[in-house]
Amino acid sequence: YTAMCYQHGGMIDDGTLLRLGKDNFRWVGGDDLSGEWLRETATKLGLNVLVRSSTDQMHNIAVQGPKSRDILKEVVWTSPVQPSIGELEWFRFAIARIGGGNGVPVVVSRTGYTGELGYEIWCHPRDAEKVFDAVWE
């Protein structure tokens, strides 16, 4: 979690940066302006990067509160190389599935803005209803 600031210190946005792979990152901010700023700054600096919005391709389902871990332990499957829901540390994430090893692919992060124990589940929009229903049950 970090602040994104202009050179003079003024805030652009705050958000979370997830490192999904060696050269693959996901910035989750509260405003589309932060993505535009990243793209413009990369261009100005001559960086060889692709910055694109994935807003249309990702839905976020927040599961927050003291029972959130127990709820997700029941529905989230992680492979042995990923941390389980019980092992997931603050501001960390796991590549997982809802409903077993062949279930709906998701990214689960131990993040949230409530101040409580909480998680966010990231999925493709076509899967959002299935993910929501699994958590709701």
Sheet with the most strands: spatial strand order: 4-8-7-6-5
* Approximate strand percentage: 35-45%
Which CATH architecture of the largest domain is right?
A: 2-Layer Sandwich
Please, what is the average pLDDT?
93
Assign the CATH class of the largest domain. Answer: Alpha Beta
Brief sketch in words of this structure:
The chain is of the alpha+beta class and 137 residues long. Helix content is 22%, strand content 35%.
What layout of secondary structure does this protein have?
Blueprint: E1 2-5, E2 11-21, E3 24-29, H1 32-44, E4 59-64, H2 68-75, E5 76-78, E6 93-98, E7 104-109, E8 118-123, H3 128-136
Antiparallel strand pairs: 1-2, 2-3, 4-8, 5-6, 6-7, 7-8
Explain what this protein looks like in three dimensions.
This protein has 137 residues and is α+β, with helices and mostly antiparallel strands. It folds into two domains: 2-53, no CATH class; 56-136, Gyrase A, domain 2. 22% of the residues lie in helices and 35% in strands. The protein has helices spanning 32-44, 68-75, 128-136; strands spanning 2-5, 11-21, 24-29, 59-64, 76-78, 93-98, 104-109, 118-123. The strands form two sheets. A five-stranded antiparallel β-sheet has the order 4-8-7-6-5. It is globular.
